[in-house]
Amino acid sequence: MENQTIPPPVELKNPLVVSHKLLMGPGPSNACPRVLQALSQPVLGHMHTELFQIMDDIKIGMRYLFQTRSNLTLALSSSGHSGMEAVICNLLEPADKMLILIGGIWGERASDMAKRHGVQVEILKKELNRPVSLIEIDSAVSRFRPKLLFVVQGESSTGIYQDVEGIGEITRRYNCLLAVDTVASLGSVPLYMDLWNIDVVYTGCQKIIGVPPGLTPISFNERAQKVIFNRKTPIQSYYLDMTLLGQQWNCFSKDLSRVYHHTTCANLLYGLREGIAILVEEQLENTIKRHQTCAQRLYRGLEKLGLEFYVEEEHHRLPSVTTVNVPKDVDWKNVLAYAMKNYRMEISGGLGPTAGKVFRIGIMGYNATPENIDGTLQVLKEALEYSRNHSKL
Ligand SMILES: *Cc1c(COP(=O)(O)O)cnc(C)c1O
What we know:
The structure is a single chain. The relative contact order is 0.17. The longest helix has 23 residues, at 370-392. Helix 2 (49-66) crosses helix 9 (266-282) and helix 11 crosses helix 12. The protein is an alpha/beta fold. The strands form four sheets. The chain has a seven-stranded mixed sheet, sandwiched between helices. Strands 11-14-13 form a three-stranded antiparallel sheet, with helices on one face. The chain has helices at 33-39, 49-66, 81-91, 105-116, 134-144, 167-173, 222-229, 242-248, 266-282, 284-304, 332-343, 370-392, and strands spanning 22-23, 72-76, 97-102, 120-125, 148-152, 154-155, 160-161, 177-181, 200-202, 216-220, 321-325, 345-346, 348-349, 358-362. It contains twelve helices and 14 strands. It is 39% helix and 14% strand.
């Protein structure tokens, strides 16, 4: 040991302390105590039969939440971004065309990723404070004839709700695949993967499902699977290869079953199973209603505070993330700092195109209660007053 020149760090002799914060931003949200308890169950190996049962439960649970019968439904062992990357690297080959509906940072990011994969990217972008119409989508798809159209249902950077009903009929007509990012939206607005002819859907676990980040539920329908299995070039990412992941999750026929691909985090899977089980108990339509009722309560309260919405039309607003313009006489950083310092409450600023322009208030999963809405409004009211008085000094 005489070769050790780096001494044991004293910092790590202090116990781990994590304070409680109320996370009222666009994610992560606070995990439900039931989920936290599930996470602390004993570790299981990734090839243990008990874990296979838990993975199967997650598969059927996610089929319910996505409203799909698709066999290739599983959870990626990585955060929401990996859903985006999995869509691109499994369905597209270099020089394939992808049309991206850009309504904020998430469309931008998909474009960045796709270009790195050598995909030819076309953009459909209108004003960022309104969704894009079916007519605009139809005209862009007919003009570009992409292999894949990528749409974000809930743009958490702008607070836009992009209704995806009807888009699937358009993409079918032009022999194009449809992928939908529902990371911030699933559970706060309706989504019917099969009925709406959506070929790939993914969501995050740390937003409305209320599980710590790290897993990404995703589903590919038969049409998408045909494209994957008929590629000319290999899938460029080993880690996100859906043909291999599908085997580990036993999604295909028996002779392709349960091959080790990577070590899944058993504890996170327990958490996800519990998070889904809570939504199954509540039932999806009630979860959606709860989020929408909370959003209404928030809108009325924000109006009373004299704040203006970034998204004017109420039915264009994403119930899970509300964006309000930062008033001219207010320093947005002061407001956020006040809420955190005095109430340990997270309210967020803008992101990407809305950076410095809006506040973002999240209503997600376990946090979506009238009490939390009222509390957030109260803190925001005080924080705005503080910021106004502070800037006058
Ligand atoms: C949060 C979010 C993501 C990214 O998820 P990470 O877990 O941070 O990788 C992707 N899309 C949307 C719409 C989001 O809100």
